[in-house]
Amino acid sequence: MIAALGCSRPAPPANFVVISVDTLRRDALRAFDPAAQSLPHLDALAARSARFSQALAPAAWTLPSHASLLSGVYPHRHGAVHRNATISRAVPSLPGELARRGYETVAFTDGGFLDTSYGFGRGFERFDDRVASGVPPLPQLPGAGKPSAAGASDRFARAESYLRGRKPGRPLFLFAHTYTVHDYYRGRAGAAATDHNLNCLLGQTRCRDEEWRALGDRYRAELQRLDEAVGRLLAAVHAALGDRDTYVVLLSDHGEGLDPAAGVKHHGGTLAREVIAVPLLVAGGPVSPRDVDTPVSLVDVAPTLLALAGAPGPREGFDGTSLAPLLHGGVRGSLAALGLAGRTLSAEEHAYWWRDGRRRAALDVGTRPVSVGLLRHGWWYSRGPGGEFAERLDGKPAGPAPLPALRHEAAPLLRAPTTVTAPHEESPELRATLRSLGYAGGP
Predict the structure, then answer these.
(1) What pLDDT, on the 0 to 100 scale, is given for residue 148?
(2) How far, in Å, CA of 124 to CA of 166, rounded?
(3) Is the Cα torsion angle 262, 267, 269, 272 positive or negative in sign?
(4) DSSP 8-state symbol, 298
(5) What is the pLDDT of residues 191-242, one digit of tens each?
(6) Is 335 domain-assigned?
(7) 279: which of 7, 239, 253, 380 lies 20 to 30 Å off by Cα?
(8) Distance (Å, rounded) from C-alpha 61 to C-alpha 385?
(9) Is 346 within the bounds of a domain?
(10) Which helix (H) or strand (E) holds 70?
(11) Residue 153 domain-assigned (yes or no)
(12) What's the structural domain count of the chain?
């Protein structure tokens, strides 16, 4: 018996499936707001997940937030803070680190700001950012990807097709991204209706209350379509990867402002709670389903997955910290929660700002943040051209905000220089995609 135990093989490395739902508000899921609509597949995933109730995005729009997710550093360090910049090659790369550990690394995105030309392909063996409808099985994927044509998301169809045809072997890191929810403003009446809805969101047009209610209804309708797509993707994951531990991580890069009365509209340029607070679910392996109220950031995802992959830690170069101990609870999890509770987490905005209800592009872009936000001892504080505000994120009674201390802590963030990176050039196809996403012109 002892000899048999001594010869037992170690467990094979776990698979990782990261699902990024662009523009998904935290309170859209019942895991974080009991009053939210029923979404059966997402609710079932949450029921078997560690549910992080105070997860924050490091930026308020797609490019810098996803760059932070996959590098584990804040935006001013990776440098991809406006549409004319790329991700610094000096920062860590989650797919690159996993590839060095023997992982097969593949990505399926809806393009736009996740185009390979921004540097997102680094570390991925195969990066497919094409958008298509009725996608047939794909025998092979392009190694470099190509710009997406403007159009609606295929809702993970390419990822499902890949999983059905994949041969087992190496552990897998699969990154799947969708604009399904982001595109809720697309009008069924055609391009003119879409442009009008975008103008409402961006403050270019004053819209009636019933139009805002209609936008909210469309957002909720897209959540239903998302839920069905997540269900299909998770079924494909189970069928293809069910023979070994697989961690499923579902998150969003930022939320969405749907409250014009409170001055919170759309995203980008605002560090309001509705935009910076994001859902974060981690399921699979030995994860203990539970609510985790420790404040965390998307910059923590990369070091967490590397720790779960068996990489020795802590890892150098990351701004984030591994959350692996929080996934299992117990004494170790409690001690880790105590250690992480005192961190200051932050968010940055470099490219956009709001004035008089309209989103505007920054003129002196890419040198230092236009505005910053930070979470400290339960207080979320933001400071920028529109002034400053502070509110509690932990649900405790507010009381007077410690503004002097928060201002003092935010000052170095506002002065932090931005890493200079290789310039980015847009193809006509990518420019069309970004225009369809609400980015008609760049800084």
Answers:
(1) 47
(2) 16
(3) positive
(4) G
(5) 788 888 888 888 888 888 999 999 999 999 999 999 999 999 999 999 999 8
(6) yes
(7) 239
(8) 18
(9) no
(10) helix 62-71
(11) yes
(12) 1
